[in-house]
Structures are given as structure tokens and as C-alpha cells.
Amino acid sequence: MDAPTTSVCTHLDQIRPVSPTSNGCEECLATGSWWIHLRMCLTCGHVGCCDQSPNKHATKHFHATSHPLMRSLEPGEDWGWCFVDEVWLEPDEFAGAT
Ligand SMILES: [Zn+2]
Ligand SMILES: [Zn+2]
Ligand SMILES: [Zn+2]
User: Fold this and answer.
1) Ligand 1 centre from 9 Cα, in Å?
2) Distance (Å, whole) CA 19 – CA 97
């Protein structure tokens, strides 16, 4: 077997056909804070804010739950990200989640 030069996500089996569970970052809505971009957990549908936001709830969700995969919820953005492998996901890799 050839050794891959880039890492490949090994967590695609944790993707569930989830829908966003809120209209904005759940924790920011609860605390009256704000965000820049929204990310959705591909395992449970949790909506959190990105690392450019002051509270970084998407990353905190990963640390709290070990759910490794998220996708962008921004209009026109269809990429995903694995926090563990630190690789980008193509849209067809999480097509079951919308
Ligand atoms: Zn992964
Ligand atoms: Zn937030
Ligand atoms: Zn989750």
C-alpha cells in the first residue's frame, strides 16, 4: 500500500442525517452573545460559531462531545472539517446531512 501523503478522515461513519437544531449558535443565543460564521455538527446537528467568533462554540462542542465532524452553515459554503484529522471534507462525503 502506498503511504498517503495527506491524511484522510476516518470518522465518516459518525455522520448522521442531521438538521440544524437551532437558527444560530445555541450557546450564543442563550447568553446573548454574537458570532461571525455558523458551523453545524454532522453527528448531532448542534449549531456553533466558528473560530473567528469570540466564543468558538463549534470547537468547544468538539472538545465537549468528541463529535469530530462539522460543516459550514454559511450560504454558498458546502465544505466540512474534521477536528481530529484536520482535513477538509468534500460535500459528497457528508451528503446525508443537510
Ligand atoms: Zn476524521
Ligand atoms: Zn457561539
Ligand atoms: Zn455534535
Assistant:
1) 3
2) 7
